[in-house]
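Hey everyone, long-time lurker, first post.

I ran two proteins through the pipeline my lab uses and got sequence/structure pairs for each. Pasting them in order. The first:
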Amino acid sequence: MRGALTAIGFVLIDIEPTYEKEVYAMLMKIGQIVELYPLFGEYDLIAKVEADSYEAIGAVVMSKIRSIEGVKATKTLARVAF
């Protein structure tokens, strides 16, 4: 399936204090998240999301990432091809 994927997005995730470990663990269970890294600064995590379309990435953000208790806000950046 990896060859069929056409859309890549990077999701910046802001987490409520004390929820960092729980949110990280829940995000690791989402199949479309292929990489996940802690950050210092305005956002707490960055997730690399792969799906078959940008609409599918939006659905992952809305239905799976934002629904996790402790997620305060997200910002999604879409990859563009040159």
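...and the second, right after it:
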Amino acid sequence: MSQTKLTRRRVLAGTVALTASVAGCAGGSNGDTGGDGESDSGGTSENGDGGTDGSSGDSPPSFDGYLDGTSNYDGVVDQTDSDEVTITVGAEANGGNFGYGPAAVRVTLGTTVVWEWNGRGSFHNVVAEDGSFESEQVQEAGHTFSQTFEEPGTIKYYCTPHETIGMKGVVVVEE
């Protein structure tokens, strides 16, 4: 009979998995998006590789399914009139404080996006799927990380420790 060593990492991983599982069964609210409630629900949007995400009508863009497991995603928040946009890191989503609020934003070229930690939900970071940027992992409330977007496209990003439970986001950069 073999015994498995109980480590802090195993306990934490089990707790996160259980929390995500229970949240999936509970249903209910999508959580706090951290945005102003406005969303873009029509048309198609660029997915960053020259194509479109194929959505239309009243449903939010799909981003090729990238945000399918992100509980607080309910559309793209239009911030095209802002020079600087703040996204909350640790927003209520995915069974706890494991989200970006809002999960998806639309900005124009030259906009600076600032991710600001609220100190909830453990250590988080912001990592571009394409490798173009990565913050450090922190938990401290008020910590910020910023990126100015100078090229049009769709930038997908995630939190390394919580990507598998849906802590993902998208920035759509338009000309």
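Reply from user beta_strand_b:
Welcome! Quick read of the second one: The longest helix spans residues 8-26. DSSP finds one helix and nine strands in the chain.
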